[in-house]
């Protein structure tokens, strides 16, 4: 039987996994077709991933993809009903996309990916330059949870999906593992979230148990 959702993206992409988790939460069967971001086969007009085929639609941009999947197939269960809760979720999704992901990806995660998977020399200077800002960003997230629970108060929603995927990539680097371990509230949230079925079902192939 054909999958209900076809995801075209790189298999270790943060944003491919965000879509996979949303499919799992909605009970949608899905398959991922390995598609490098800058390959001719990628249909995203700006060379990003993923692109998704579902319900006869071709969708791109991860926020619009997961909102559609959640609204059309999961009764909006990953999006708070009340305006204040929805604003909180939207704010943290935006923080993950606009501030955390670029900082973590370029300064820490991608240097390690290039080193581990292509044999490139690890760019230690780039990592060292980025670490102070990365530490401040992790401390900010930890402090926000300590103050009022931040995104963790309303049950599992899209903020959890985006933030977990962005932070998990960080946690899989030596420096990121240490940094998150030094943030007790953030570390505890990561440990609990990691046990959710949709998270476990979408582990990256190289990700440890």
- Quantity of strands, as a count: 4
Name the shape in a single word: globular
Counting DSSP H or I runs of 4 or more residues, the number of helices is 8
* Tally of separate domains: 2
Unreliable residue stretches: none
The average pLDDT value, as a whole number, equals 96
Helix-and-strand structural type: alpha+beta
Rg is 17 Å
In helices, the fraction of residues equals: 55-70%
| CATH-derived topology of the largest domain | Glutathione S-transferase Yfyf (Class Pi), Chain A, domain 2
CATH class of the largest domain, anyone?
A: Mainly Alpha
Order of helices and strands: EHEEEHHHHHHH
Let me know the largest β-sheet. 4 strands, mixed
Structural write-up:
- The protein is of the alpha+beta class and 209 residues long.
- The chain has two domains: 5-73, Glutaredoxin, CATH 3.40.30.10; 83-200, Glutathione S-transferase Yfyf (Class Pi), Chain A, domain 2.
- It is 58% helix and 9% strand.
- It is built from eight helices and four strands, in the order E-H-E-E-E-H-H-H-H-H-H-H.
- It has a four-stranded mixed sheet, covered by helices on one side.
- Strand 3 and strand 4 (57-60) form a beta hairpin.
- Helix 1 (14-26) packs parallel to helix 2 and helix 1 packs across helix 5 (158-171).
- It is globular.
- The model has no long low-confidence stretch (mean pLDDT 96).
A few lines on this structure:
With 209 residues, this protein is α+β, with helices and mostly antiparallel strands. It is built from 8 helices and 4 strands; from the N terminus they run βαβββααααααα.
């Amino acid at each position: 039987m054909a999958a209900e959702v076809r995801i075209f993206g790189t298999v270790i992409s943060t944003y491919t996994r965000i879509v996979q988790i949303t499919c799992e939460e909605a009970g949608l069967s899905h398959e991922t077709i390995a598609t490098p971001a800058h390959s001719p086969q990628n249909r995203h007009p700006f060379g990003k991933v993923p692109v998704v085929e579902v319900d006869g639609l071709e969708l791109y941009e991860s926020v619009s993809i997961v909102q559609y999947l959640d609204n059309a197939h999961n009764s909006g269960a990953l999006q708070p009903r009340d305006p204040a809760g929805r604003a909180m979720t939207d704010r943290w999704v935006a923080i993950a996309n606009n501030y955390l992901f670029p900082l973590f990806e370029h300064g820490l995660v991608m240097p390690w990916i290039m080193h581990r998977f292509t044999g490139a020399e690890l760019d230690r200077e780039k990592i060292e330059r980025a670490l102070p800002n990365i530490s401040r960003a992790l401390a900010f997230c930890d402090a926000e949870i300590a103050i009022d629970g931040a995104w963790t108060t309303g049950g599992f929603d899209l903020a959890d999906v985006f933030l977990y995927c962005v932070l998990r990539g960080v946690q899989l680097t030596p420096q990121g593992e240490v940094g998150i371990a030094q943030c007790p509230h953030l570390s505890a949230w990561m440990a609990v979230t990691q046990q959710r079925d949709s998270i476990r079902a979408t582990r990256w192939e190289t990700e440890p148990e």
